[in-house]
Amino acid sequence: MPWNYKNLILTSLLAVSFSACSIKQNSNLNIQNTKKEFVKVETKKFDAEDFYIMYALEMESQGAYNEARDVYFKLFDNTNKYEYFVNFLTLSTQMQDFALIEESIEKYNIKNIKEEEIINRLNSFSKLKLGKVDEALQIALPLVKSYPSAINYELLGTIYLTKEDYRNAYNSFSKVYEYEEQENTFQTILNLQFFQLNEKEEAIDRLEDYLRQNDYPFVLSVHLLNFYDQLKSSDRINNFLKELYYEYRSKNESDYLEKLKPLFWQFMKKSELIDFLERNKERDDFLLAAYRDTNQVGKAKALVKELYEKTGKIDYLAQEAMILFETSKNQEDVLDSVIEKFETVLQSSTNHIYQNYYAYLLIDFDLDIKKGLELVNKALEQDPYNIAYLDTLAWGEYKVKNCQTAFDIMKQIVDEIGLEDDEIKLHWEKIKECK
Q1: Which pTM value belongs to this model?
Q2: Count of beta carbons in the 10 Å neighbourhood of residue 78
Q3: Would you give the end-to-end CA distance of the chain in angstroms?
Q4: Helix axis angle, 387-399 to 352-364, nearest 10°
């Protein structure tokens, strides 16, 4: 797990920070450290400068970065203005041409010019991407000393992370967070502390305090749950889930409450989950799924009927029909009621699950095989590789004595999933005997 988190941190930092953030900063040549005395670079007059500037900008706007880069270098070569050299390097970074960046900086760089921060940052980053980690570090250390900023410390932290120097990486990203309190930086710090520095409880304490002071942002709340899960601390998970639930409910955060429900399902025992939902009068799909998953048939029947009467949503009527059929000791006794419900459902719904379910009933009970085949073919139009739907189709073709068609479909199913399913096995044996 620690290596996974390391790779996650590296990927996000390398891909996002320097392909986006640093490039945006590179196009803005206003250096923050205005008190520094810079060397003045002698420039040359170039009559076509304005024309080439417009041309380069037009190429950039059209995404023709290679052409734009060439034009910026021509501007630099003809004017000796290093802002054009920076634009050339920036586009090279965007194009991931790191060898060219290294070569160009080595050839044209001048120390102590006003563009040196950006040039050194891109130089360090390019060497890092070329695998020259120690050289990248030698450039990044004086860079943050001369130009302390979030992006420069982020580069330094990424270099330390690549070197697996986790303590210095942690310190560098902590400096980033001092400059810009970004959530992703905070997550990086916590991951380093928890996974690489083995300061698990310190990371948890820090995150718990942050959440309670900042209204429980959802992503970071999930982060804490994952920390608890790493420690196999089910009590802390359950208590925190309940804490989140009451927090979000008190503030009418309905979106967060919906996102929270799968986490209850993932981490909490079903019996405890049902008890919690019942005590909080949560009468919804989530409780219905919990009832069905734990085979509490009576409660599932009552709840799905209540939900249909309350909302009039046709999906609840379909679920009511399925629960009624699947839980009846004598299914033929409830068949008329189930069929009536599906007839109502399919008047307004084209849900392929309901189409296939009803089709199978019509075929299996020899009620209306032709209509069943029509319905399952409609379901297959929406989900053509669904094994259950193909089985229904094969069974329908068997019932109307299209033996070869039924055999071909069923063989395809058996070749794919085998004969472990009892119903598939029964259909296969019957269809093989079809003449």
Answers
A1: 0.69
A2: 17
A3: 57
A4: 30
